[in-house]
Amino acid sequence: MDMTMNPDTDGVPFVAIGEEELGGPLGKTVRCERCGKRHAVENSNGGKRWSYATSGWIDVQAGLLQFYKCGEGLFLVGINGREIKYEL
Ligand SMILES: [Zn+2]
Questions:
Q1: 25-41: pLDDT as tens digits
Q2: In this structure, which residues have their CB less than 5 angstroms from ion ligand 1?
Q3: Which of 18, 19, 50, 84 has the least CB density, counted as fewest CB within 10 Å?
Q4: 31 CA to middle of ligand 1, Å?
Q5: Interatomic CA distance for residues 21 and 49, integer angstroms
Q6: Phi and psi for 21 in degrees, rounded to 5?
Q7: What spacing in Å lies between the alpha carbon of 32 and ligand 1's midpoint?
Q8: pLDDT digit string (tens) for 5-29?
Q9: Domain boundaries, the chain
């Protein structure tokens, strides 16, 4: 995964994830790498969502991104319903 901030585009974050970085379909919950518990998977709703990774608001298409919440954090876990494989 490549996350790049471009100061020429008003701080809009770009996230590039390749096909080889996507796994199978996500279930309704995922096991959290941080606390070990399972958390509900939430779909982007088309509005602006807080991005923990970029510490800013991102505007996303409904259903395009999947997140889960752990404590105060919101974590990106999927794209178009497919799991992001963070370990390659
Ligand atoms: Zn957790």
A1: 999 999 998 999 999 99
A2: 32, 34-35, 70
A3: 19
A4: 7
A5: 22
A6: -95, 0
A7: 4
A8: 555 555 556 678 888 999 999 999 9
A9: 2-84
